[in-house]
Design goal:
Elements: H1 3-20, E1 31-36, E2 53-61, E3 66-73, E4 84-89, E5 92-97, E6 102-105, E7 109-115, H2 118-131
Antiparallel strand pairs: 1-2, 1-7, 2-3, 3-5, 3-6, 4-5
Length: 132
């Protein structure tokens, strides 16, 4: 079986488990979390590992179930700052993928990493507003 097809099947099984889970997590805007983003289509950002996870920034909390997120990557995207915003954490640089803003369920959240400063968060917000 093709590796991509196998990953879609694994992701579908995990997505069912996430959907029926009853865990309640408390999250806020400005926080960075690991989240199960899954196997996606085309150039949408995929998750990695067994839980298809990736770091995300919580951009907007609508309620305890729904949030706007921005996925992140550790791959150097400094040549394209229009669609990526760099942040430094623990002496490493990560890139927030501004072009992949999306709505997700809080059931995708796995664990909190950190909270951005208001200055960093406002910089991201201004860049997003520039797209709109």
């Amino acid at each position: 079986m093709d590796g991509k097809l196998e990953n879609f099947i694994k992701w579908t099984k995990l997505k069912i488990r996430l959907h029926i889970a009853s865990n309640i997590l408390f999250f806020k805007e400005r926080e960075i979390w690991w989240a199960s983003l899954g196997v996606n289509i085309g150039f949408e950002q995929n998750g990695k590992n067994e839980t298809f996870e990736r770091p995300i920034l919580v951009l907007k909390k609508f309620n305890h179930d729904i949030l706007w997120i921005l996925p992140m990557t550790s791959k150097d995207k400094s040549e394209n700052t229009k669609y990526y915003h760099s942040i430094k954490y623990n002496s490493e640089i990560s890139y927030i993928i501004l072009s992949q803003l999306r709505v997700v369920s809080s059931k995708r959240l796995i664990r909190k990493v950190r909270t951005l400063s208001w200055k960093e968060f406002n910089e991201v917000n201004e860049k997003i507003k520039g797209f709109l």
